[in-house]
């Protein structure tokens, strides 16, 4: 699983990165919000982001807002890791779309537990996205099977799904329409 650590303080960023890599995660590590945003927009971007609140450029709260509207099959799981520990700050972080919130200084075991929860949720979301895509494909297939197949009564051409008209022979040879089941009849087998 791929994670992003966005933290402007070098020691904290390196510490978190090393800990995560020791646990077997692939980690992208950046020092500001703008660099984090670039990484998160990639099609193969990280599934989990650990964001500091106060960073140059785009701060963690603004970045969290931006991440939550990304067009992805599965949303990025965001953990805010910050020194801001006032209840109002925590609520503001969650209101921005953070999925979890850890205050500094952090406990390594707590970080591990929360990252594992994030990993489980991301995995479930990915499985659901795959199932939804498969279901959509099946529903499209059923819809196509239930639709009628227009045939011209004069020339016997068949209307293709792209609205072109083809001879039945051309249409069947394309083997694109799932309504046709291709087999060999008993007469032709002989």
Automatic annotation (TrEMBL):
Any one Gene Ontology BP term: regulation of DNA-templated transcription
Modified sites of kind 4-aspartylphosphate: 52
InterPro entries on file: CheY-like_superfamily, Sig_transdc_resp-reg_receiver, WalR-like
Molecular function terms from GO: phosphorelay response regulator activity; transcription cis-regulatory region binding
GO terms for cellular component: cytosol; protein-DNA complex
Keyword Transcription regulation: yes
Keywords per UniProt: DNA-binding, Phosphoprotein, Transcription, Transcription regulation, Two-component regulatory system
SUPFAM superfamilies per record: CheY-like (SSF52172)
CDD domains: REC_OmpR
Listed Pfam families: Response_reg
The UniProt record lists the keyword Transcription regulation: yes
Residue ranges occupied by any Response regulatory domain in the UniProt entry: 2-119
Gene3D superfamilies associated with the record: 3.40.50.2300
Xref: PANTHER family: REGULATOR OF RPOS, TWO-COMPONENT RESPONSE REGULATOR ORR33
Name assigned to this protein: Response regulator receiver domain-containing protein
